[in-house]
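Lab meeting minutes (informal)
Scribe: AK
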Amino acid sequence: MYKLNTPFAGLAVVFLALFKISVANAQLVVIPIESKQNALVLQVSGEKYLGMVYFGPKLANKNEYEAIALAYKLNHNTNGYNSAYTPSGTRNLLEPAIAVTHADGNKSLDLKYVSHTVTSINDDVSLVSIKLVDSIYNFEVTLNYQTYFNENVTEQWSVITPHEKHDVVLNKYASANLYLQADSYWLKHFHGEWAREMKPEDEQLNHGIKTLDSKLGSRADLFQPPVFMVSLDKSATEDEGEVLYGNLEWSGNYRIDMEVDPSNNLRLIAGINNYAADYTLKPGVAFTTPRFVYTLSNKGKGEASRNLQSWARKYQIVDGEGPRLTLLNNWESTYFNFNEDKLSGILKNAKELGVDLFLLDDGWFGNKYPRNDDRQGLGDWEVNKAKLPDGIAFLTKTAHDDGVKFGIWVEPEMVNPKSELYEKHPDWVIKQPQRPEFYMRNQLVLDLTNPKVQDYVFSIVDNLFTKNLELAYIKWDCNSLMYNANSAYEKYQGNFYTDYVFGLYHVLDRLRAKYPKVPMMLCSGGGGRVDYGALKYFTEYWPSDNTDPLERVFIQWEYSYFYPALASSNHVTDWGKQPIKFRTDVAMMGKLGFDIVVSKLKPEELAFCQQAVNVYKQFSEPIWHGDQYRLKDPFENDFASVMYVDAALSKAIMFNYLVSNRYKAGSNLPVVLKGLQPNKTYEVKEINLFPGAKSTIKTAAYTGNFLMTIGINPDVREGRNSVVISVEEQK
């Protein structure tokens, strides 16, 4: 070895040291993904592994992101716990985000960073795409992070592309892999069943894996929806604490793993459920996972909700910044038993009530097997000539003459075995050929992996629109789970569960391309399919078949953490024992509809409903497009209180509901309001009173400062179990 023995040897050593440092710094790749308040920071190690080193409040000096990994003592080279997309079969010993089987049978994957790009989509939206490749196999993964700056929301997904000579099998293929650092983690998630949707559970995450998942196929949300929140260090309240909200944009089987690793950090992996779903992928074919959307707030659950709701209205839900239609549905007044005369009378009721639209529900189709109950006819989408001899056109004309719009119910993904469709195309049905059929609600699911079935389902809705030009609304239902899951069309049965959802989305893409803004309700026997993957195609969703207004206070409350009010279809029905005012006020907390026999209402009840429709329309802007503030939690108090404030902070509406029947239960103290302008003066008064009732609340003017410091007592109690208050700026 040559030895430095000159007077400049010391300087040379210093120079070499500085050169090594500069080279090391040049190799250090730090990728900060920033929103208005937060930063998600990725960093490439010296061995080209991509790790997630930080997710939290963003730094004022971007250069300081380079110091985060050292501060948290993160070393990807030694354990890989913080991998940005954890592969299986090499150095990783924890739950992977991706696992594959190569054509030669090898199950290893070792993904290394190659490059990344940053694309500005508009002033609010930017996309970071990061290319990773395997060090041996010609296998590529691109991680995508699309950030909505002002909303503090990120969508994350992966694109998996094998360039090998033969097929590979994806054994797991997650959308996102997050890494969070805190002393402790508190999970709030939800479970339920038909008519018992969105029941919350809270627990601390400890070492090991907590998995939220679904294996139901077509109604994936029935037992457990793909939404959750994780609080860091302590359970977040409405206005305090750091909390992450997550929602997988996928309408099929999903899986969300939460693993507290040996270093006490939280690894969160979300994506399509790999249960019975080993996906065979051809060479050069890109597989794009569904998007996982999330938001992080350090100001509690309320801010996180408003982040997600604002994003959804602006970017995800169809016409999220537009209006919504109030409606009258015939289901609970007629069920399957109706004819033209009966429907004509209900159409006149819709006009009398003052709503925008009449919705014809199930039972209007089938001739060989008339749809007179739920045991037959599903799949035969011909107008029932006995019930409607003059067809749908007669009803749309009658609605037009009565000054209301017309909508209709469909369930195009399903079929009754007792139907002409089943007789003609038994191969279009999801079933195991050697096993007995098993039914839910006397029906089976059509195989949407088959392009012919996709064309058929598209034609059902398309024909309704082309033959009835004034058709203004679709209620899209989906009532059966997948039993005996098997496709006569699919070559690889492991692809079935995933390709079914891709097939559904293909149909909906075609419909939305042709009918971009027609209002459509996403229904699935209640809240069986409520996620942002489906809501990309719909204007609203049906939270639950349970329309008891007392139950709905709790159900709608929990949905409101993740979805905006204008998307929640809430109908006034005869469920429950509460008076018509309570039922209507609860339905006004979202997208208002009625499902009652209007002709049987007492005169004062009809007058109240007419008044309520007018009040709702006067305050539709803050309800539909304003910020929501949950003020009193019904799970913790005798009453629930929630308010909506418009963007100008000039108009708000506050709903209050008694949820306890205990002695003297009610609002004993003022409720502190939120979201107002402190120096503005607001008139506060009770509205939507039942005819003949007098308010116990004095109409008065207060500053926003007073209302957000002292508050207002809505005087909720027995005899006043539903109170609606307006807050309007005085100019």
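Next up, CB showed the second protein from the same session:
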Amino acid sequence: MDASCISYKDTGYFSQTVIDYLDDKPELRPYYAHRPDLDGFASLLKNKKVIGDRDLLAKILTKQYEQISKLNIRNSKLVRDHIELLKLDNTYTITTGHQLNIFAGPLYFIFKIVTAIKLSQQLKEQFPDKNFVPVYWMASEDHDFAEINYTDIGGKKVHWWYEASGATGRINPDTMRQALNQYKGVLGLEQHAPELAEIVETAYTKFDRLADATRYLVNALFGQYGLLILDADDHQLKKQFAHIIEKDIIEESSFKNISTTNEQLEKLGVHIQVNPREINFFYLVDGLRERIVFEDDLYKVLNTEIGFSKEELQQEIKTYPERFSPNVVMRPLYQEYILPNIAYVGGGAEVVYWLELKSNFEHYQVDFPILILRNSGLIIPKRIASKITHMDLDIYDLFKSTDEIKNNWTKKHSDHELSLREEWRQMQHLFEKIRLRSFKIDPTLAQSTDAVQARLERAINNLEKKLLKAEKKNYHTRLEQIDHIKSDLFPKDSLQERSENFGLFYVKWGHQFIDELVRNFEPLAFKFTVLTEA
């Protein structure tokens, strides 16, 4: 693929806060620790404090990967090597996280992981005396099944119809047959379709937990790059974090810290992504993940009869820490506590919500990671690329609205002058003379002259629009190509990566598709990447 880049600002799809963060606006500096560049990494690595038990982390990962080994599938040597490297004091992780979307959900699921992999490789080149391991943190404790039970591929929506409750990572995917058949049907039988069909068939029929199925799928795509896939829904990992769980539930520190930060960010015009609750943990058992609230001197689990006194809560956390699941504002702290992590790779909204969290990290004396905006990309197949060339469009044109592209194209290619700006300038000179003459006769007539000029300007603008509209009709057939290009590349008038699944790209290119993403993405360049099939 040929790669070209455009600034995130010029795409029009990213928030001003994200643009300001990338541009190093001074007012945002108090809300993160280090800049997302090589100097920032050098600074963090000098003083990085690792809290979690490295040996325990490696042991748990080894155990989790045994689920794949049970199928007589040997994990890649690089995966095994990276697990061993985690035991060393000079090894650090580059982490991204995401929900367990079926069939890997939209493209940005893939893009997040590729960014983490590429950044790990580049940091190793820059700091050869240290090791950097990419990690995919599975949001296995998330309970929002409606956000993960479908994917869009090739204009079709593949849906897993199932009434789920509790943590999504614990759901048995045995009811996925209809969705699985539908997805494989869209893949077809040509090129690399059988290969991907076998991967998803194994993932969703050979495991009894969605977390394990997702690990298999993601490992099949990225195992050769040494990506480690972690399910933190684990008793031993939570046990390390138990004292913070207890302290935060009882003292409500995260609520106070993050609320204060959010007030400050709102004054800067930042759109707040998440708001903390007084208690930022769920109670988690099989089939149940419900909020904990403090009412009537008891810690109650909503929509249940479960309740604890303070002493009972402390004992429950001590005995069953795995039953306490962090929500969106505490999960990052848990992540950074148990991993030797130095960077988090997230989308635009994630970067903004992490800016809300730094004060809470400082409160608990946990290092705040460097925030990396994941690479975004647009993939243009050859058939669409030829249409773009034929229509004489460039990558900047693609990110404009369909109407704007059509208007600009018509003005550029019309044999007629469609703008009346020059004529209007001549009229303005005429009105200056009329205004002067009117003023000499009666100063109050100047306002009447201005009113006539304003009405005429509106009329000229409307006539200009009619000229453009009439000329667009003359180019109707050509302009339809723009409709096709936009609908193909920007489904639902949004970025391709936010809806389209990776499946059909894999069918066409196989694992080379992943290789090309890794080759072309530049995590620290912070540019939107347009990949065109050569």
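CB comment: The longest helix spans residues 445-474.
No objections, moving on.
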